[in-house]
Structure formats: C-alpha cells, structure tokens
Amino acid sequence: MTIYIVKSGDSVDSIAKQYGISAHSIIYNNQIPYPYRLAIGQALLLSTQDETDSLPKQHIYSGGYAYPFISRWVLTETLPYLSYLYVFSYGFTEEGHLIPPTLDDTWILSLAASYETSPVLTLTPFGPDGQFSNYLIHKVIHSPSSMSSLREDIISQMTQRGFRGLDIDFEYILPEDKEAFVSFVAYMKDGISSLGYPVSVALAPKTSDDQKGLLYEGKDYKRLGEIADYVLLMTYEWGYTYGPAMAVAPINKVREVVNYALTVIPPEKIHLGIPNYGYDWTLPFVRGESRAITLGNIEAVQLAIEKGSSIEFDPISQAPYYHYTEAGKLHEVWFEDVRSLDAKFNLIKEFSLRGCSYWNIMQLFRANWLLLENRFLI
Q1: How far apart, in whole angstroms, are the C-alpha atoms of residue 357 and residue 320?
Q2: Which residue, among 117, 59, 80, 76, has the nearest Cα to 375 in the 3D structure?
Q3: Looking at 94, 171, 176, 306, which residue is catalytic?
Q4: Do 138 and 174 form a contact (C-beta atoms < 8 A)?
Q5: What is the reported pTM?
Q6: Other CB atoms closer than 10 Å to residue 179's CB: what's the count?
Q7: Separation of alpha carbons 282 and 224, rounded Å
Q8: For this structure, is 217 an active site residue?
C-alpha cells in the first residue's frame, strides 16, 4: 500500500488514474463521503504495490478498547484486525464485588468470539463520580478479603461468560500504594493464570524510574512487567482536553517512553498504545479555562475541508494539524492519519514490540486497520 499526500488540483479520479487503481478503492480505504472532496495535505492510503509489500512481516498482537454502546457495524468492521477486545469497563466496590458495565455486553462477547478475537475484562477503579479513585484502589489492595472476593468474581465472569483475559487499568495510584499494587497484580495473575488466560496492565507513560506525578509514582514498571503477561504503554494524551494544543501522541515523546520501558521490560511484553482520535482547540489556550473538543480522525479531515484549511504535517511529532477561524476565534486541530500511524508502526518494528493497543475503537478509521494489516501479520 502507498501513502499519498493530496496536492492542489488533485481529485479522487485524477489520483486513481495516476496510480492505475479504482476511484472506489480510494473512497473505501479512506472513508471519503460524497461528493468526494479532498483537503490539500490530506494523507490517503492507496491500494497499490510498493516495496514494503514483499518484505517479511513481523507478527504482532493488536487490541482495542470498546464501550458496550459501540456500533455493531463499527465493531464488525474492526474485529478482523484485533487479537484482543478490551471491554470497558468493570468496576468494583470496596468489598471487592465486581460491578459490570451499565449496558449489557453479552452481544460484544458473542460477536468477538465469532471472529476469534479474545474478549478481555477491563478492570477500572471508578468512584461514584465516574473518575479514577485512588481511595477505592487503596481500600481494596490493602484488604485480603476484598481482593479474594474480587478475584472470585472475575474468575466467575471468565468461566461463565467467555472472557479470555484480564486488563488492569488503574490510574492515579498513590505513591505509598506502589508496593501493594504490585502485590495486587501478582495475586490476580495467580488466579487468572490457572484458567490459561493472560493478565495485562496499563502503564502511564513514564520516562524514568523516579518520574514525579500522581500518574507515575504508583507504577513500578520493572516489577509489573515481570508479573504481567504483557503491558500497555499509554503513549497518548500529551495533547489532551485541558492542555495546550499539541499532538496527542507525538512520536518523539512516544519514543522516550519506549526507550525507558525497554530498560526494565522485555520488548516481547510491550504493547504500544495508539490513540484513535484528535482534538480541536480554541486559541489562545488559557489553563483552567480552555477545553478542547474531541474529534474522530475522519471527522477532523472533513472539518478541514469544510473550513477550507490545508493540512500540515509536523516533522518532529510526526502528526498532522491545521488551523481555521470560526466566529472570530482561531482554532488548532491535531489528529492521527496514516503517516502518524506508520511512524508508530515503525517504532513497533524497530524494537520488535509485542504489539499495539488502541484507545479506543468506538469510531472506525479503516485506513489504520488496512495499513496495520499491510505492515504486520496480525
């Protein structure tokens, strides 16, 4: 497959003629809606032969997070490319009783099984406000009875409903709970391993052992990497809802995290986290007041077309962006395209990582999956 950057005067038909391919394939690969307009600077994935097609491919595992309200069509389109479907999410009480998602997820498990994709129970410590609760984490991981009850409930879900893995996604762990959290993961692993299913742990994107901050201090990369079957590096959210405008997953920052992780975790245990979204900021950014709007990657391109904006590509972050003005306000948009994704795929290849996991798969970005399949055996 070939990545093509749209130039002034290009059309779907002219690009198709230039490469000797069908216009329909361009429209399909890139989810271009009628009347098939393009943005200058837009990256298109073309179904052509290039030099990478004949090279040996690395086998990787791929995963994606999904809420139970995901569109059946989106999930059906995505499952052929997934090794794991992380069902988001299962909570728990202080006493260790598992709390299922509000919406029934039975249909997701059944559909995943029909595609031979392993459904994974994602465990999250959400409090009553819907946010990660380090108080809840503290209470449970220091209570043998709560941990026992929680493990029993998880094993029951797996044996009765068809889950084939556990993903532990705990964030904002208190620094003083660092050791207890390691013990908690080991305890869960001991129980789940008896079923023959993997246990994974999501890790905030650290760049050193002693990195400060509530996101980082409670996570022991080395010991968690030793215990878990694999880990997910959450290499995204540098650009985020309440922060200044920048790439969500700049490749230079992502590389720093991978470089550190590889000093304490073997590559065959590491999944690179990949975002499937972008943000639209209104400028100027004012900390404490500004709030970016989340955009899908296809939506971001359509917005650029609507506003008459040319898409630029930052060589350092390896990410696309553009500006537009609305109601007298300047906007800045960053998102993912096949160029930024290919940069991340190259990082997986460079370090022979185990695979990648996406937050999240609620919106279909077909070009991503086609490119992933082209670059790897999945």
Answers
A1: 21
A2: 59
A3: 171
A4: yes
A5: 0.97
A6: 12
A7: 39
A8: no
